Amino acid sequence: MNPVTPAHTRRLVVGSSLAAIAASASALVLAQGTARNLLSARFLPHTYCYLNDGKLIALHFGSDLVIWLSYVAIALTLAYLVRRTRREIPYSWMFLAFGTFIIACGFTHFMEIVVLWRPLYWLAGDIKLITALASVVTAIALPSLVPQIHGMVRAAHLSEQRRLQLENANEELRRLSGHVLKAQDEERRRIARELHDGVGQYLAAMKMSFDVALAEGTGQDGGTQSLQDCRDLVDRCTREIRTISHLLHPPLLEEMGLASAIPWYVTGFRERSGVEVELDMPSEFDRLPPAVEVVLFRVLQESLTNIHRHSRSKRANIGLQVDEDQAILTIRDYGKGFDTQTGAFAAGVGIAGMRERVRELGGVFAIQSQSVGTVVAVTVPLQRRPVECRSEF
User: Fold this and answer.
1) What is the DSSP string of 326-368?
2) How many CB atoms are located within 10 Å of the residue 84 CB?
3) Choice among 23-27, 161-165, 202-206 with the minimum mean pLDDT
4) Does the structure show a pLDDT above 90 at 202?
5) pLDDT tens by residue, 21-70
6) Alpha carbons 63 and 379: distance in angstroms, whole number
7) What is d(CA 151, CA 142) in angstroms, rounded to the nearest whole number?
8) Percent above pLDDT 70 for the chain
9) Residues 137 and 282 in one domain
10) Which of 134, 138, 250, 299 lies at a 20 to 30 A Cα distance from 230?
11) For the segment 64-106, what is each residue's pLDDT rounded down to a tens digit?
C-alpha cells in the first residue's frame, strides 16, 4: 500500500476544486433556461429515437429500473447505518454524502425511464446537474480524509495485535496460575512428608528413649544411655528443622548475599543428592540488588532440583559471572535431556516460574537441551532499564 502524501492530497483537492468550479459555472449558465423549460415537452421522446423497437425499449427500461432501485436501496441502507451507529462510526457525514451521491445517480436512471415516453430533458438535465454537484462535493471531501482513515486502520491493526498478545499473555497466566497452585500442593506434601519421615521419626524415637530412661531410672547406666540417645535425637531433629527452614528461605541470602548462599547451598546439595557439582564463581563480589539475588538463587535451586529429580545426571557445572551491568548464571548437566521444540517442559511449573521471575527483571532466560545434557542460562541486568523482555528456548 502506497502511503498518501500531502502532495497527493493537494493534487486531489485541486482537481476536485476545478471540477466544482466548472459544475457551478454550468449551473449558473443553465439556471435561467432550466427554470423556464423545466417541464418543457417540445422534444421527441426516446421511444421515437428507438423507432418504437419493443426489445430495445424493454432493455433500457429494465436496466435503468434495476439500477434506480438498487441505488435507492444502497442510499437508504447507508442512511440507516448512520442513524444506528452515528456515535460509533467516525466521519458518518461522509456516508451521508455518499448516500446523496448514490441516490442522485439513481434518479438520473429514473429520468431515463421517464424520457422514454415523456421528453422532459430539462428536468433530466437538472437531476444530472445535482448529481454532478453531489459527486464533486464528495470528491473534494474524500481526499482530505484519506490520511486520517489510513491512520485509523493502522491503529486498529496495532490494537488487534495487542489484543492477541494480551489474550496469549492471559492464557499463559491462567496456565501458570494453575501450575503454581499445583506446585504449592506438591510443596506442602513434600514438607509434610519430610516432617513426618524425618522430624516425626526422631521425635517418636526420642519419646521411646525417654520412656526407657524413666523405666530404668536416671541413676542406672541404661537410663543415662537413653538420655544420651535422646540428646542425639534432639540434635538431629534440630538440624533437620534447620535444613528445611534454610531450604525454604536461606538466611545467608539476606545476610551475606549470593557470594555465601550459593556455596552453602551447593555443598548441601552435594551431600543430599550425591551429584558432583563443580562451582565456578568469583570468590568475592559486591552485593547485588535483592530482587536479582533472590531470582538467581531460585533459578539455581530449581535447576539443581530438576537435575536431581529428572535428568539423573551424576555431575553438573555451575558458573556465575558478575560485572557492572549484568549477572550471568549458567547451570549445565549431563543427564537425560528433553525436546524444547515440542515444549515437553511446559507442563512443569518450575521452568515457567523461572522464566517469569527473570522476565519481571527484564532479563533473558534460555534453555538448550539435547538427548544428553541440558543448559540453563540466565542473564539479568543489574540496573533497571528498558530491556526487551524475552525468553529463548
Assistant:
1) EEEEEEEEEEE---TTTTGGGG-HHHHHHHHHHHHTT-EEEEE
2) 10
3) 23-27
4) no
5) 555 555 544 544 555 565 666 778 888 888 888 898 899 899 989 988 88
6) 73
7) 15
8) 72
9) no
10) 250
11) 899 888 888 888 887 787 777 766 666 666 777 777 788 888 8
Q: Quick one: which of 276, 301, 248 has its CA closest to 240?
A: 248
Confirm whether 212 is domain-assigned: no
- What is the count of structural domains for the chain? 2
**H/E segment holding residue 290:** helix 290-306
379 strand-pairing partners: 328, 364
Q: Which residues contact 30 (CB under 8 A, 6 or more apart)?
A: 125, 129
Q: Please give the grid coordinates belonging to residue 376.
A: 540453563
Assess contact for 284 and 231: CB atoms under 8 A.
no
Q: Report yes or no: 30 and 44 within 8 Å, Cβ to Cβ.
A: no
What is residue 188's predicted lDDT score, i.e. its pLDDT?
A: 65
Distance CA 243, CA 223 (A): 30
Residue that is written with C-alpha cell 512443569 in the block: 348
Give Cα 65 distance to the centre of its chain: 52
Q: Which cell numbers in the block locate residue 227?
A: 538420655
> Who contacts 79 (Cβ-Cβ below 8 Å, separation ≥6)?
96, 99
Of 215-229, 233-247, 341-355, the one with minimum mean pLDDT is 341-355
The CA-based angle 383-388-392, given to 5 degrees, is: 110
Domain termination site, one of 142, 165, 188: 165
Q: Indicate if the pLDDT at residue 141 is higher than 60.
A: yes
Cell numbers representing residue 317 in the block: 557445572
Q: Grid coordinates standing for 138?
A: 464528495
**Domain limits for position 107:** 6-165
pLDDT recorded at residue 392: 43
Among 377, 341, 370, 352, CA closest to 179? 352
Other beta carbons within 10 Å of 314: 13
Nearest Cα to Cα of residue 297 among 336, 251, 338 = 251
E strand or H helix that includes residue 85: helix 54-85
On whether residue 204 sits in a domain, the answer given is no
Q: What CATH code is carried by the domain that includes residue 263?
A: 3.30.565.10
